[in-house]
Design a protein that fits this description.
The complex is a heterodimer of chains A (about 230) and B (about 180). Chain A is α+β, with helices and mostly antiparallel strands and about 230 residues long. Chain A contains six helices and eight strands. In chain A, strand 7 and strand 8 form a beta hairpin. The N terminus of chain B is likely disordered. Classes of the chains: A alpha+beta (about 230), B alpha/beta (about 180). Chain B: Its main location: other.
Chain lengths: ~230, ~180
């Protein structure tokens, strides 16, 4: 069943590929995207979804010491993007599960030779604790390659700036909550485990609202089809 | 309308957070049925640590059932799971390949030392391997730590469940793969 769907989608991608550009064949639906519509229609969700333009954001990458702009990634660097929202003090395993999906996609990108066509952008909403040093340590812990040059942890200047950005651009409401259940943790953030996949032109191909549990190979395969289209 | 959906999403994540655990979600599809596909074997480096020597392990094992404990050194509940695993292992060791696997990348020396130190500190005494490229973790869609997975002799997953388990739960899970 799944396999049939996959093959059919591949066939579709093949036709589009022959035409030489992203889905510009009439009758193939949304011309800005590579993948067919997702099984679950998320167009009413508050967050960006299939066919939407990924909201443009410019945020510091504190490890590289540079500003990263999503618009520039699409326009100049011609990369497909996996983007998610996390914080390193996440006590319940949700964030490592999100990061793990991006990490596996990064590994496969390196193995398959499309690492330079890819960008992985996890945005922290806890800039107070997620300093460059903490993020670097987290990368090591999570098996992320910073040397590949395609992974940018993005860190808003302040908690409030991040909160505003996430709500206005991505429809995600983030609030600090007491962390009474956890030792050594002053506060936590109940949050939405969202992963977004955008193509090289900056359009959302997939939104995975169940990011921490979505099948890892589904994300990796979707990303591969988008980045190699 | 839009706002309601966001709030619903947050609430469900918060509920997960409260449980301190995260279901991997793929279990029903891989359990039991005759159409379950065998897992393609992955070869991982093993770590020089108590009960474990540097080398390689292939998972699933080609010739017998496999039990995998997915853990990470940054995972606090995994510490709690260790003495229970130590108790269960001698009861099943002659029938299954018993191995712990971390998604941490031991090809980096510092990470390898961290894993070996953690292993010693928590009285590990069996084979421990590193999923250096997260290949096995991805195949089995492990999203939370610890996660226990029992694979039968033919390479099919028979049981997969996240969270800290009692010895009886682990033994019952392993039993499904024998």
């Amino acid at each position: 069943m799944d396999r049939r769907h996959y093959l059919r989608s591949l066939a579709g991608a093949g036709v589009v590929g022959t035409a030489g550009c992203l889905g510009s064949v009439p009758g193939f639906g949304n011309e800005n995207v590579v993948l067919g519509p997702p099984e679950q229609d998320l167009s009413e969700a508050a967050h960006p979804s299939y066919g939407d333009e990924l909201p443009a954001v410019t945020l510091p990458d504190p490890i590289a010491g540079e500003e990263v702009s999503t618009a520039r990634i699409f326009d100049e660097r011609d990369r497909a993007v996996l983007l998610t929202f996390f914080y390193t003090h996440c006590p319940d395993g949700v964030c490592p599960a999100l990061i793990q999906r991006l990490r596996r996609a990064q590994e496969v990108a390196a193995e398959e030779g499309y690492g330079d066509d890819s960008a992985f952008l996890p945005i922290t909403f806890d800039p107070e604790r997620d300093t460059a040093e903490v993020l670097r340590e987290y990368a090591t812990q999570q098996g992320v390659s910073l040397e590949a040059g395609n992974w940018h942890f993005l860190r808003p200047e302040t908690y409030e700036a991040g909160q505003t950005l996430l709500e206005e651009k991505f429809g995600l409401v983030i609030e600090k909550a007491p962390a009474d259940d956890y030792e050594n943790l002053e506060y936590q953030f109940p949050h939405y485990g969202l992963i977004l996949l955008a193509n090289k032109r900056g359009y959302v191909e997939r939104a995975y609202p169940n990011g921490p549990t979505v099948d890892i190979e589904t994300v990796v395969n979707d990303f591969e089809r988008v980045v190699t289209a | 309308m839009r706002r309601r959906q966001v709030i619903a999403g947050v609430a469900s994540t918060a509920a997960l957070g409260g449980a301190g655990l995260l279901a991997t979600g793929n279990v029903p599809s891989v359990l039991g049925g005759s159409d379950t596909e065998p897992v393609d074997p992955v070869t991982l480096p093993t770590i020089d640590a108590p009960g474990s020597t540097a080398g390689e392990v292939t998972i699933p094992a080609p010739d017998r059932p496999t039990f995998v404990d997915f853990f990470a050194t940054w995972c606090a509940p995994c510490e709690e799971q260790m003495p229970i695993l130590a108790d269960v292992r001698p009861q099943v060791d002659d029938r299954v390949r018993f191995v712990s696997v971390t998604p941490e990348d031991a090809s980096q020396d510092a990470v390898r030392r961290t894993i070996a130190d953690w292993w010693r500190e928590h009285d590990g005494d069996w084979l421990v391997a590193s999923d250096v490229t997260a290949a096995l973790t991805s195949k089995l869609n492990v999203g939370a730590y610890p996660t226990a997975v029992a694979i039968d002799e033919t390479g099919r997953v028979r049981w997969s469940d996240s969270g800290v388990h009692t010895a009886d739960e682990l033994l019952a899970g392993i039993e499904t793969a024998l």
